[in-house]
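User: two proteins, same treatment. go.

Assistant:
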Amino acid sequence: MKLHLNKHETLELEEIEDNAESTRHGRQFNIQVGEDSARLSNLVNAAVRTHFEMPDAGRLSEGGRETVAAADKVRPAIFREQDSQLLRVVYKEIAVRFSDETGRDTQKKILEKYGLAIRRKSNFDSRQVVVYDPAGDIHAHRVVEISNDLVQLDEIDAASPNFVSEFPREATPTPAVSQWHLHFRAGQGHEPEADVRIRDAWKHTEGSPQVVVAVLDDGVDVEHPNLRDNIVSRPDPSEPRDLVGRDFFISDDEHPEHFDPRPKLFRFPYDRMTGNDIHGTPCAGVAASSGRLGKIFGASPKSKILPVKVFHADDLASESRVAEAILYAAHFADILSCSWSGPRSSLIEAALTRAAAGSAGLRRGNLGTPVFCATGNGYANQVAYPAASPNAIAVGATTDQASIAGYSNAGPEVWVSAPSSGGTDGIMTTDVSYPNRGFNTGLHSAGGADGFHTNSFGGTSSATPLVAGVAALMLSVGPDIDLATIREILRDTSDRIGTGYSGTPPHSEEYGFGRVNAGAAVDAVLRHVGTM
């Protein structure tokens, strides 16, 4: 089935048939696609319970038979995106972004024509809504067909079925012992050209509390000793419940859990990515760990972190909520760091476009917000989405041997690369501090017996917040530089390690314009603003 991304681009969706059966707990979906069947079946059943009106069987009582009967009617359409093979599930909702020129009366007429009503409005874009058919006639495949019609209208900027989808987090752990990625030290088996020259940048700045890096991920441990002082306080002054960030996986903006961006989901074994919210805390540390405990620093240790939770481990996430999270982050942060990939989405693209273009109401106004995205760990010659978007800055990974990491996806969209795992050592950074949770569950060899840090973080997941942290250093000395200047300075100051460069300026599909050099980037900003 074809999904229209816009008036000109389509995407092929491969339908997955399910052998669903009714049980006393409601409808259970059984996906048959080979070795991945059990995992996909679990994801679909969890998504239906969470997003599509089916109650959790554990909360049903003997008196809940009518609820089970209603839940048994839930029949979503289940697809795989042909290129990425990512799972996308849709039931009744369509997300629509009306153009700035479309008035209220016209919006109402369009929705009435298709029998649609507004279910909820975006808190951060007054022209974006989620709609549905109150009569219940438009569901599953029909949702895709109606969305394809809407996206052709001049009055609409973006429309998409409100899929809940897979968004793989991009970590690739390997054994490691030190923070070689920030500063080279002889005698550890690392190449001198492997690090980002962070101490050259720190001669001028270690970051600024006026610069905020949003980490969009599966949650951040806001009480971690190396993070708590750098967590932004009350990011949204107009919302008193917004104390340290939000959880956009929670669909109800009024629910108390929406205002708690901490890790929440843990399943044994607790040091594995699958089933655990342990990815965002290391990402936050790579960007802006204070170094207060154990001198484990982030790239910009005096900048602030905005935790934006968009995932509950590897459960499927609503694409409209991911887009809403991006808009929220652009309103209250200067830099966005996204260490994950997902399906191509017109909703997410619209949010990225607005962040990059800048507008009144965003934290950086019309300067444009840099959104750093991981190219992906697929060993592929294709950059994953959203890194492949022209509105993102795609970050690849290099190793402690000053070479490209074999897993790092390559392609013309790669802008820069940064040190990560894949060589001898990985990345030492913050870990979830809850007892017996995280990549390090309390082993000295894994980063310390207290479990507060891991020495095994990596992948393009680690490279991405590292570049975001370097950008925070840049904005600390030049807060008014625009997005185009940020991109140009990163391009022109990166070290062209490795081979395969061509063109002017030289570009490699593996390294981008080279491995980021923090010291050279900060020096270039100082020259640009005329203070050096």
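Protein 2:
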Amino acid sequence: MTIHEPIASSPLTREIARASASPRPFRILILCSGNIARSVAAEVLLKLHLKRNGLDHVEVESAGTSDVWAGHETPGAILDVLAEYGAGGFSHVARKATAQDVASADLVLCCDRLHLAWIYEMFPVHFDKKAFLLSQLLGAECQIDVADPIPSRTRDSCPLGESDKPALRRMVAFINTIVSVALLPLALSEVGLIPVCEVHHG
């Protein structure tokens, strides 16, 4: 599987700008493994920054590539950390992504390469068209995984707790940086420009 690069010529800002002329919303789906931490944080932070920029024609949802945490509410630890960014006051129940979720999305943002591989295996028709790493919002060559802050968790363990907050803060800070920099051209009223902070990694 090769991570593709079309996002370099059509970054998030340009796609959102084009979508503003469409009668239907621009839909973004964010994926992680269990939809309990990474994708939830990315969904909430992206919604926050879109709202701050007055972009109400963009819809953002998140889901998991597995059902390991399906039905679990977002733990208080992640709610507390997101509240530190002004993104509190929300509720979320983890769920697994469906074929309809992927098909109806205009852009699928994956927290790491395992989630991209899942798209490639389960929905290959959509892989080259709209599936990217979340970090590629900064440029096609910025292929950095958002690491699972709690990789050893199991279905029977407490999903997230107070002791996990340092790892969660690092994760949320990284995601917030990606989202805020990716939307910077819109914040500066320069819609259509490729983000100047294109990161080269590798």
